[in-house]
């Protein structure tokens, strides 16, 4: 009452303050950071260690094992998983939820440094924590008809990259592809032998002859000079003049024993765009940056650079996440606008008064703008989750304003002033209105304890919706009374409800009277409803997180182990053609020998990033299915795996990137790999599973040289010295670097390709020993051995994972089929199987969400208990909750919507929303009964009084959610399951609340009255 009086007395200050907040909200909205997902950092630290070209088993023992043992001693570690392949290992360290990830990263770094002395000397390590910004937001292609790949690489590396790296919001710019330049010193073994010069002497001479060194200072004619020795070389011609030895007193220049010329680094990768070799530039944003603003700024910077680039250089796009973000923001904004328009339409129909409609509807934009202010202060960004929360809440934020205005309407009369009507209305509805809103808010409190990806993402939704609802409540208590007092006027016919609503009211009263006379029917209705809910729930599709049509996907591929780079390129040219001929595809880029994650891999592996046209008739799943079928038919030797970018990112962040994963544990590597292969064969025949593969990835074959200890010892060598020579002869030695302008170019010394391209050439490779030059074949034996498989560990247990994607089936159905297959498999002794993947994440999330739901129900009951101060009404409303779930499950079942984290969130929201109407209705009935009315009369009069506001709030909420429930627009799939569950639950719960609630309450009041009379 006092708050209402204060609001009425301060109409102008309240309107002024509200206007200021709205202007601040509009300004903040324009400068909000925009991204596709909330900026959250998950408690995972990834360590990548590069250990040269060592075989898998050596890296496993010398690098992976010491690191795993060290990480296992770090506090709060939940899981350690490693993948070891030739030359490198990647270790993911997952920490318990709630762990400070910065502190975790520091602890991992400390352990890496502690173990470093035990690792091979040249081991390079990199430690990075996982977050949604690790994937490029923007991918550019650089092409030209006249420039070479070396010139394009230099242009991208030294012109484009520095300029783009300075753009606000850019964290990193990575260049892929092209041919980096180097100076090749190709030795001529015959001339070297004649001159008596060895490989090692050549490298030493080059290193010693390309220096700039300060050697002292000299004072001369009142000035001090720094004395330099400058033998800096700046070109291949300068390098060729270096003296590497002497013969008979005559100097031997490098050009006498080697060919020195500009060249390029060895081609170990191929990068192309739309089927043409290209250079790619990948741009990664800073965690707090606005993705859309960053992309716009990059495009502006590129426009400035156009004039300085060669005329035929084309800088295009192969991936642009801002397109999805803009479309998603636009579609959610449209959903908000459409929902608001539909809500205003409901107000117009029910209130039939322009002033009242304007006063009530004005709360929508005011709530949104004030919410933007509080969101910004809370550190939230605009993304799919927060914008989805605003779209979900568009019909809810107006509820309290509806209750206020409708109550003022009922109290307003020819002899009652507007201010008096506002005061009387507020005195009746303020307490139940606050309680009913708090019941919706408190359901989100337990979400603070929700863990994993679901908790991180949907916490942003819950926090935004909580802010919006609390803002709407504050506006309903302060602003709505002020606006009512300032703008509403009594007029003739104000209380006329119209023929239709009068008919609805009469039909409702008749139905309620019938229910009161036949109250025994409540129990059968309740049982049928609960049984129907259980029946339909068991037949719902199920999943983890909703999948959205991103308009882009990644195609990972691998050809048979050991396939050369040129042969892989030939096979993939057929895939290029398939993609070019698919009408829905607008552009694509391809990496061979490297990946989108910027890791170097073998020449038989790589990936495509494929962008689809925005306006297309087929969904992304249909396009993927067609491309998959064509690739499997036309290039059968190629294995492929399809996934959308964000889907892959969310899976990686969750630690379970694949929908289906069967983990095969065992100490015997051969046993677990053999069983994994059998599972692949069986699962490949399961309908709905695609891209089935084993994690036992085989590397290419190897030529293994086994030194003869007697022979190398007799010639005064050891194995390490021999390995150094072979490394220098085959890979070459970077002897020095020359500076050309602002660029450094490596000088590589090695033998000609004819001496290192075949097995026979390797056997005759010249080796310098203290006793003279001999052939490599004289020092040992060369063996051809097959490639080894990748070694995977989880918590230091050997593991092979069998994974699969889904095609045309939901996760729940697929898991049932997989469990059927596993039941038929008998593992050998010492081998165990378990089911993981997104199924494991789903089960963990559902388990946690069930606890959240239980906690929410307790909190809701507590709020109602404070409102009613008795157990009867809260207990009745609580008992109606499971019946309301029937509507949610029915809506999911009819629409074919899966039960996933999003729809489960809708069920949790219902726990708070559906009680709002019950509180308003039973509070009115309780007040009437306490004034002496009979139980039946009390509930009928309460029903008649609360019918209009209940129908208005329900319809505005439902119609406000309809745009999301239809799932129209980019990114709408994320909130569609939630909206469908809430719409279905609200519609059915309204019917339950209006009929079953009063019937049960009247029976309780009668029983209570009877007990009082008996006493």
What would you note in describing this structure?
Helix 20 (565-581) packs across helix 21. Helices cover 53% and strands 20% of the residues. The strands form 8 sheets. Strands 1, 2, 3, 4, 21, 22, 29, 30 and 31 form a 9-stranded antiparallel sheet that branches. A 6-stranded antiparallel sheet has the order 14-13-18-19-17-20. The chain has a 4-stranded antiparallel sheet with strand order 6-15-5-16. The chain starts with a helix and ends with a helix. The protein is α+β, with helices and mostly antiparallel strands and 1015 residues long. Among the domains are: 44-129, Alpha-Beta Plaits (2-Layer Sandwich); 195-264, 2-Layer Sandwich (Multidrug efflux transporter AcrB TolC docking domain, DN and DC subdomains), CATH 3.30.2090; 353-490, Multidrug efflux transporter AcrB transmembrane fold; 497-539 and 837-1015, Multidrug efflux transporter AcrB transmembrane fold, CATH 1.20.1640.10.
